[in-house]
Write a structure and sequence with these properties.
This protein is mainly α. It folds into 2 domains: 156 residues, no CATH class; 133 residues, no CATH class. Helix content is 83%, strand content 0%. α4 packs antiparallel against α16 and α9 crosses α12.
């Protein structure tokens, strides 16, 4: 009897019937899940705990790092070989929607502008631009240079002569000019910040975004991807691994993982699993048609290797042995 039962179960999963059996079982499972609230099967805190245990509490080991590196580099190399243009991948209509959403973030734009124009690097840039601009004006663009033929050359020659005859005098002039720039840098930075906030209107930003898109649309994806070498990509990823090792231990990351998951289960925990799947854009036919062929391939290999028969026999044998002892 045991042998007949084993063969019956085994035939249900034979290569010519495995996909059909899987489909039947999957449709039955989905029909059952359609009646069961998600929260009855798993709760948000359990999901959070699992993520914390499997992801946050474990470092990314060297082997996994190498696998991630290899995978990302392979993806970068594949992208570098692509001849499709940016415009083909991202149509202009979709780009405009993204740009319009970004342009609408005025508070964020002003915060970014303020942060940039308050930085020391920006201050040095403005100082350099003002200094070079004033110095260039005095030697090239002032009224005397424009109205008197050869005056510009004479002034340059005079500056050279002054520099050779009295180096300290030339340095003193530069020092006074830089002092003037530095004394006015605060006003210049404030004015530049106010100008940028006022000048970067939605219309101008959209116009700029359109110009950027039209310049990039004809470029091939491979051209853009090739700008980042595999070596540079590996350096970036290694830096990200190091950052993640710190971030995963912080309370902030833990909260950022926990809050969205708990919120999801608060909104969907009382809804049937089937409804949750439909909300995610997955219906029964899609799920079965996707999972059945892939799973059938695995089952076929288990069937051919004898593993499936071994497991069926291991599951049924104790029952028949128990019955024989009665």
């Amino acid at each position: 009897m045991l042998e007949a039962h084993v063969q019956f179960e085994l035939q249900c999963w034979a290569p010519d019937r495995a996909e059909e059996t899987l489909s039947t079982e999957l449709y039955a499972l989905i029909a059952w899940l359609d009646q069961i609230p998600l929260g009855d099967l798993i709760d948000g805190q359990t999901v959070v705990s699992s993520i914390q245990e499997l992801v946050l509490s474990r470092p990314i080991g060297p082997e996994l790092q190498q696998e991630i590196l290899a995978t990302v580099v392979a993806g970068q190399q594949a992208a570098a070989a692509e001849t499709a243009t940016i415009g083909e991948i991202l149509p202009e209509a979709e780009f405009d929607e993204i740009a319009r959403a970004a342009v609408g973030m005025r508070d964020l734009q002003e915060a970014v502008i303020t942060q940039i124009t308050s930085s020391e690097v920006y201050a040095k840039l403005i100082s350099h631009v003002l200094y070079e601009g004033l110095k260039g004006y005095l030697t090239e663009e002032n009224p005397v240079s424009k109205r008197v033929p050869g005056a510009s050359s004479i002034m340059k020659l005079g500056q050279s002569a002054i520099g050779n005859a009295a180096p300290g005098l030339s340095q003193g002039i530069d020092k006074q000019l830089m002092g003037f720039v530095n004394s006015n840098i605060s006003d210049a930075m404030r004015d530049s910040r106010e100008y940028l906030v006022d000048a970067l209107t939605e219309e101008r930003l959209m116009e700029t975004a359109g110009e950027i898109y039209h310049e990039a649309a004809e470029a091939e994806l491979g051209e853009a991807a090739a700008q980042l070498s595999p070596e540079a990509l590996q350096e970036i990823l290694m830096a990200m691994f190091g950052a993640w090792e710190h971030l995963r231990t912080t309370d902030t990351v833990s909260r950022l993982v926990e809050v969205p998951i708990v919120d999801f289960f608060e909104r969907w925990g009382n809804e049937p699993v089937g409804k949750v799947l439909i909300a995610a854009g997955i219906d029964a036919d899609d799920l079965v048609s996707t999972l059945s062929p892939a799973a059938a391939t695995v089952i076929e290999r288990a069937y051919q290797d004898g593993y499936l028969e071994e497991r069926i026999r291991a599951r049924l044998a104790p029952f028949y042995e128990h019955m024989a002892q009665q």
